[in-house]
Amino acid sequence: MEMKQSQFDLIKRQLKKLTAIEGGFYQKKFEGIDIDSIKTQADFETLPFSWKGDLREAYPLGLQAVPDSEIVRIHSSSGTTGTPVIIPYTRQDVADWAEQFKRCYETAGLTNLDRVQITPGYGLWTAGIGFQAGAELLGAMVIPMGPGNTDKQIRMMLDMKSTVLCATSSYALLLAEEIAKRGITDQICLKKGIIGSERWGEKMRRRIAAELGVQLYDIYGLTEVYGPGIGMSCEHECGMHYWDDFLYFEIVDPKTGEILPDGEIGELVITTLKKEGAPLIRYRTHDLTRFLPGECKCGRPYPRIDTILGRTDDMTKVKGVNIFPSQIDELLRDVQGASSEYQVMIDHLGGKDILTLFVEREKGTDREQLEYEIQNIFKLKIGITAVIKAVDIGDLPRSEKKSTRIFDNRY
């Protein structure tokens, strides 16, 4: 993707500011680099990447690029392992994030007459408060539920006549199944679902949309870069628009770091153009996607990336074969009688790796026939023999947050 002059000007300003901070994160990172020699996009692409390990080493506030007096909030990554990543925000950062989120809602066709039920978590995590700030800026009615308490969620959804559900795909599915079980689908007023925080397959998407009777939109973001709200799908469901006046995106080869041609799948790298509290230069997200060429049918001027296809660190190696959750999503997508929900258990027994795939089967589907079919397709498409266990709908656990799909018990 070619860098715009306006983006380059903002990047140069950021580089000069960040390398002038005595003892600052990027002054150390770019030590020995003459920032004045960065005169083209190609020059910029020679700068070293930053990554989550850098941010953890900077704990707690080593990323901070402005005085304490200008910091109004912090957020932290939702990861449960390792040193957390702390991201400080200025008042302008908070306002910029709300503006980007407002664009997401507008891209999904929301107006100030919508009633937005927010189920992602609040607190240090960026999700809930981001969804709320954008909706309030739009002028919509916010129903700030947060996660959990499904009975109360459904009660408020009915009584407040919520028109928009914001959720992880896992919790949206849990709610959809519970609403269907109670036989109240015709009583809810939902029209749209805005889903983020985890990658989800086409089969899961179809189930949620059908059971809730809504149009679904993908929202993208990560704590290190504002939070959710930096990218959004439109009504044409062809990738996600991202806000290139706030962010510069690159797609690189995950192994070599080389820039990939438009259209090729690689790792998304993000540079913040206007962030003040904790700007990031060439930040490796681990998210796998690609640029989508050409203009979108919706006519919006913002460029697009594909929906997130997986993560470079999602990969599991079994019997010498690299396996991504997205491969299993795709494999199950076209298997009749298989639900969207699955779980993988990997064990090392008797000197060899055993992969067991638990798959929920739709009512009336022959268990043995389904297991046989999936086992054959798994061997054909992924290249190893798996143990397939078909279980009933609802037997696998549901999550109010993100679902864990793969459990590796070998270590």
TrEMBL record:
Molecular function in Gene Ontology: nucleotide binding; phenylacetate-CoA ligase activity
InterPro entries from the UniProt entry: Adenylate-forming_Reductase, AMP-bd_C_sf, AMP-dep_Lig_C, AMP-dep_synth/lig_dom, ANL_N_sf, PA_CoA_ligase
Pathway per the UniProt entry: Aromatic compound metabolism; phenylacetate degradation
SUPFAM superfamilies cross-referenced by the UniProt entry: Acetyl-CoA synthetase-like
Superkingdom of the organism of origin: Bacteria
Biological process terms in GO annotation: phenylacetate catabolic process
Domain AMP-dependent synthetase/ligase: 66-271
Ranges where the AMP-dependent ligase C-terminal domain occurs: 320-410
Keywords from the UniProt entry: Ligase, Nucleotide-binding, Phosphopantetheine, Phosphoprotein
EC number(s) from the headed UniProt entry: 6.2.1.30
Subunit text: Monomer.
PANTHER family assigned: ENZYME, PUTATIVE (JCVI)-RELATED (PTHR43439:SF2), PHENYLACETATE-COENZYME A LIGASE (PTHR43439)
Family designation: Belongs to the phenylacetyl-CoA ligase family.
Name of protein: Phenylacetate-coenzyme A ligase
Species in which this protein is naturally found: [Clostridium] methylpentosum DSM 5476
